[in-house]
Amino acid sequence: MADEEREEYQFSTYIIGAVSITVALLLLLPMLFVMGKSTAYSAYEEEELYQLSDMRGSLDNGGDGYFMANTMSTPMLVNDWKDPHRTMLLIIAPEKPIDETEAEAIYDFVTDKGGKVIVAADGTNANRLATKFGVTYFGHPLNDENQHWLEYDCDPSPCYPSWQNVWSVAAVAEDVNEMQAGAASKGCSEFQIVNQNPSSCRIPVMFRSPTGMKFEPSLRDTTHPHERDVKILARASSSAFIDLMGDGDASNPLNPAPGDISLMIRFDYHNISAYDQVRSGQGGLVGGDIGELKVTGSIVFVSDEEAFSNRLWTDEVAAGTGLSQSCEGVVGSCWMQEIHDNNEWLGNEVYYELLIHSMMEHDNLALSGEIRNDVSNFQVVFDESRHITGIVSAPFVESMGTVVLLTSNDFLKWLVVLNVGLLLLVAMMVVPEKENWRHVFDLTRFNQRPSKLDPETYRLRVQQALFTKIRVHHDLTRDQMASKPPSEIQSMIGDPRLVELAYSKSKTYSPQELRKLMQAIRRWGKSN
Prior knowledge:
It contains 18 helices and 13 strands. The chain has helices at residues 2-34, 53-59, 100-111, 127-130, 181-184, 190-194, 219-223, 310-313, 315-320, 348-359, 369-372, 394-408, 410-430, 458-473, 478-483, 486-493, 496-503, 511-527, and strands spanning 67-71, 87-92, 116-120, 135-137, 142-143, 167-170, 203-206, 213-215, 228-235, 241-242, 262-277, 290-302, 379-383. The strands form 4 sheets. Strands 1-13-2-3-12-11-9 form a 7-stranded mixed sheet, with helices on one face. Strands 4-8 form a two-stranded antiparallel ribbon. The protein has a two-stranded antiparallel ribbon with strand order 5-10. The radius of gyration is 38 Å and the shape is elongated.
């Protein structure tokens, strides 16, 4: 009995200890990971130059009127969102890598649900997702001698030129490598911008220390050539190179300069089926206004996260940090020499608002005008799960992300259920059994060797066996047995040898004698 209680206590101690250690690690490890780090490029942080609060302000009810939201868990939730074809996910400056499970969920969101995504990174944290579309982030700074902008807040002005301050003139929905010469040299007019029709024109966009990207067509692009449209929206000049060695030396052969480095790449997947409120007269399901329509899934990869930052979002803020709307008079590196009309830079806000509008379903005539013309029916979601969180909130955010990861993936969900079931089964097997249970073989002892008995305890164990046999034979409880006087118990025993075993303190027995007494105890129940 004492051994069983000790084993039960040890088991409880092990369980409590394991749970305590697990909880401590779940709390401390996320805190240690984020210690000393601050969140950057968040749409919900203070209005610093490296945050995205100006972008959010221009897209929400105070600006374009989109319904704004954020996700603090993993991007795996995208396939559970309502109206994914009317939802834009913004993954800007992923400070933590996008893993394979998340990348697969976002890929399905775009290609199966018609979702919209913009990914902006200047490192390799987004490469798991990018490679699913054939894109690779180089992950090192790009230097461009022929396409760099100048800063004018130095004395003397301008500042010493940095080849990492890159500009480009970008198209919204056209491949700049395939544009006609006239369209490629034309800036988008104010009329086109106001009416959100930036076709056959380009807009200047500023980048600050971007990396480069390359696109490689897949075998599926050959077998299914019409499944998607791939467009290079912005590119570096032919003299640009990736500063792999960190020396800024264009002549270093270890710094790759392929001559076709992309800065923005767009993918559009057409004819994806979705259900929504359709245009009047098209006929919905069972006579209603909900019907099936074809939508387009779109994703754009941008090689710089700072292109969306407060510093470059509006020309007013940029001017305060030494960036000019115009590069007129600059020799050699000026976007005004590449586009000749309407070529002033008015902030990256102008371009990216047009890009987001073009990716949404505003031009889908099959969609009800009531939905299509009301911008508040479209959602813009900032992915905050890719950012470093505060020390105190880190355990909560990581735990929530883990829950979402497990519940959103069927394989992981059932794997966890199976493991929990196995743990419960093991716990049931190692719990000590009640003493009045009778068993011949105990499977819970398969990993233990039986403890050897102390020879000095043999007589005591035989005595205990005798008293137990008497108590059970006469149907007595332990308390009733303890209350019986010795004389009465002796009369109940009857056999002089067994009486001597029970009460004699001077008598000693050899192991052989004790074995014979055990045989007598077994027969005693029958003989009486």
